[in-house]
Specification:
11 strands; globular; four-stranded antiparallel sheet
């Protein structure tokens, strides 16, 4: 499901849930081809900083939820993923992982030395290897939401957008969004949001920003704190997230998927009308939201650049 620009970029800009029903038949997982950019970045994170991406509350048993997620993946992508309740096989990656954490190479990998995925998984704790295979087979990062308690007991998030998964695990949904600027609407909607995602329907939402950070992985511990040292919109990036909620019946949990994409801002704004829409949304942002998104230093140059494109003058 591509990022829905028209639904996401509106003025006046408001920080709110923005949920809508996911259209019937729309997949929630996006297969990664071997060596794809997202897979390479996830491999790097899971190899070097697994504790910052794979996080769970002490004593939390993710087994039933992983079973449900594996079955969902097999239903959506039967040619690429198989699950028999004990063994998950990622046909596109040539690797299988059992529920106990055994790693089996089926075929040579299609990039690098050929064993990157299996080598990364074997270095993880056994309890995380199945989740690791899901992470390396699909573009989406994954989390579990306890719909009764409103907490997030488990995350497998290798590509966070300027937040730390290890600081969010076990916290209530309202705590997780506490630092968000102008968050009154978002926090007020939390109770209703939990009721929605606890039901049988699937939901989606879209998030976006403009950034000078050129990697999908944006954990705050690994992002240069000196942001926008060269406030040049022509060198900026358009960062988007497609987030979905996946029902997990009978578990008291919902799955949460996050698909991060990144492209040059100039490319993203090329279609007609986009520069004008982004200009108006950005112009309507409060100072608090601009600071939260790190856009305050570049607001005026970015607005000028967008006006030039909107008015047909090309890049400023």
């Amino acid at each position: 499901m591509p990022f829905d620009f028209d639904a996401a970029v509106v003025a006046p800009h408001r920080m709110q849930p923005g949920l809508r029903r996911l259209a019937a038949g729309t997949p929630q997982l996006t297969p990664l081809r071997p060596g794809a950019r997202a897979q390479r970045e996830k491999l790097a994170v899971l190899s070097a900083f697994p504790g910052q991406a794979l996080c769970a509350e002490p004593g939390f048993d993710a087994g039933p939820a992983l079973d449900a997620l594996c079955r969902h993946a097999a239903t959506e992508h039967p040619g690429l993923w198989a699950w028999d309740g004990v063994l998950a096989t990622a046909h596109g990656q040539g690797v299988a992982v059992s529920s106990r954490g055994d790693v089996v190479r089926r075929t040579e990998g299609a990039f690098g030395l050929g064993d990157e995925v299996a080598r990364c998984l074997r270095a993880l704790p056994a309890a995380w290897r199945l989740a690791g295979l899901l992470a390396l087979s699909f573009a989406e990062d994954l989390a579990l939401v306890d719909t009764g308690a409103g907490r997030i007991p488990w995350l497998a998030v290798a590509l966070p957008s300027h937040w730390a998964p290890e600081a969010k695990v076990g916290r209530h949904f309202t705590e997780v969004h506490g630092p968000v600027a102008d968050n009154a609407l978002l926090l007020k909607a939390t109770e209703g949001l939990m009721r929605l995602v606890a039901g049988p329907e699937r939901w989606e939402r879209f998030v976006w920003t403009v950034t000078d950070h050129l990697r999908l992985h944006a954990h705050p511990a690994h992002v240069d704190p000196a942001r926008w040292t060269r406030p040049d919109p022509a060198a900026a990036w358009w960062r988007t997230e497609h987030q979905t909620f996946l029902p997990l019946p009978g578990l008291g949990l919902a799955g949460f998927t996050i698909h991060v994409e990144l492209q040059p801002l100039a490319v993203a704004m090329a279609p007609p009308g986009r520069a004008a829409a982004l200009h108006d949304a950005l112009a309507s942002m409060s100072p608090a939201v601009l600071r939260y998104r790190g856009l305050h230093p570049v607001r005026e140059p970015l607005l000028a650049w967008l006006r030039a494109r909107r008015d047909g003058g090309g890049p400023a």
